[in-house]
Amino acid sequence: MLEFLYLRLKLFSAIFFGKEHLNYNRDKGLDFVERFNGKYVIGEAKFLSDFWGSQNSDFEDAIATLEAKDVNAIRIAILDGILYLRGRSKIHKL
């Protein structure tokens, strides 16, 4: 239970810090906020396990984080799973 509360607090603080200090204005949360060589890095980490449904929205959420405008940080998305399988899916085409 304590670990769950810690993770929720960490997630909330990443969102708050992103909004207050980095001009990150999306309603979705961030998976991480880090500082490296004097620059902030924000991002999403997703494991995509299926070609449709919530996986498409998870993928689009990660891409939207990359495309967020006027953010004072380097934006990255760490994606793993089915998007690397060859096929005709929307995810693979992008």
Unreliable spans = none
Q: Could you spell the SSE succession in H and E letters?
A: HEEHEH
Instruction: Report Rg.
Output: 15 Å
Q: Tell me which oligomeric state these chains represent.
A: single chain
The average pLDDT is 78
User: How would you sum up the major sheet?
Assistant: 3 strands, mixed
Q: What is the number of helical segments per DSSP (H or I, 4+ residues)?
A: 3
Instruction: Walk across the major sheet and give the strand order.
Output: 1-2-3
Q: Please give the number of β-strands.
A: 3
How much helical structure, as a percent, in the residues?
40-55%
Q: What fraction of the residues are assigned to beta strands by DSSP?
A: 15-25%
Distance from first to last alpha carbon: 39 Å
Q: What number of structural domains do the residues give?
A: 1
Give the structure's gist in a few sentences:
The chain is α+β, with helices and mostly antiparallel strands and 94 residues long. It has one domain (2-93).
Structure description:
With 94 residues, the protein is α+β, with helices and mostly antiparallel strands. It has one domain (2-93). It contains three helices and three strands, in the order αββαβα. It has helices spanning 2-21, 54-67, 90-93, and strands at residues 32-36, 39-48, 74-81. It has a three-stranded mixed beta sheet.
Features:
three-stranded mixed β-sheet; 94 residues; 3 helices; 24% strand; alpha+beta
Describe the protein's topology.
Blueprint: H1 2-21, E1 32-36, E2 39-48, H2 54-67, E3 74-81, H3 90-93
Parallel strand pairs: 2-3
Antiparallel strand pairs: 1-2
